[in-house]
Amino acid sequence: MPESNLYEDKLPGLLQQTGSERLSDEQQRFLSGQAQLFRFTQQELKQLCDMAVDLAMWNAGTMEQVWPLVPNEGLGPKQRRQRLLQAVRTHWQTLREQPTRYPEIPVSSSYSAERIQRVNVEKDHLGLGWCPVASTRTRCCNLMTLDAVENCGFDCSYCSIQSFYHGDEVRFDSRFTEKLARLEIDPDRFYHIGTGQSSDSLMWGNQAGILDALLNFAAQHPNVILELKTKSKNINHLLKHEVPPNVLCTWSLNTPTLIANEEHLTASLDERLRAARRLADKGIVVGFHFHPMIHYDHWREDYGELFQRLTGEFDAHEVALVSLGTLTYIKPVIKQLRARPGFQSRVLQMPMVEADGKLSYPDEIKQEMFSFAYHTLESWHDEVFFYLCMENPRFWQPVFGFDYPSNEAFETAMKEHYLAKISARRSD
Ligand code: SF4
Fold it and tell me: What is the pTM of this model?
């Protein structure tokens, strides 16, 4: 059987193995046709499929629309194939390196909270452990994380929770309250425990009694700094109930453009700031996370406006922390993003380099964004604890003008600052 027929016979299997089912039927037909012409290898087909998925995700046209014309004369079939692949890669890379542009009106997508199935499970162990994204290669605060709920009802494009949990099932542990009440805490040690890594801390309110359990836990253990991290506006339960002073409520914030385009189903910026304002008025210590900061054409103006608004609406003594971080990926999350049918997002449209075992922006972009943020929030430097989350120590000195000699020193400084803020608020 001639070689050409062999390739034709193999091609459907090759296309399947390289994930072409992620593309529209039309794109699959186009790619199959070109593959018959150029005899792409499996690896080349995989790259072409991934790039075609990215272009669709970025609303940057189809592979057919960007397909380069490769001259016939003077080039052997292998050279023609390589020239073509190089041209496609260059186009894709150029889109990644230019500042991302978000549409004025976000592309409407079928995000609905209805997809969430809430299930009650009985877990053997309490989900208490070390921060799942901490690394020995980054300057880390040794946060302990408590999984009150598994999986999230929001849909932020860049979120790594997707790679931990599967599907739309959100799990409530029916024995959570009992196990948390039985948790042994060393009274001679200070703890910093956060909820908000396995799900949003406030979006579920007091479903399954989770907030009551957390507030009782904090009341029992004043040496525990309990951080409820959220993108929600759902603060009713906290407004109606006594909140111990060692509970911090912290919001992840982003610009309106990014919230509208990449943080689906979450509360708007106005709703988040209003919720934080109401809890601060109730004497609860608040804080703000800018993680991920995302580099796009209007990032400086939009983040600048956000920082100005923040210092205008909150007084430094009400705020315990500001953390900064940016888009950082592990490969499973990128694979998961590219596998979502019809998914619209630009969080992969970025110059991506290997960074401390993960994939992220080049150093200069990170340093520029972090430095801009820190300088714009200058009025808070003396009273608010600033830190970089999940970043290499090499950024601290250039951004903050200081660094910690170790993660332990960072952890101690953070806890001391939060405890001082809590006791100051207690005496207010
Ligand atoms: S700095 Fe960030 S990644 Fe590191 S332990 Fe703390 S919260 Fe986790």
Answer: 0.94
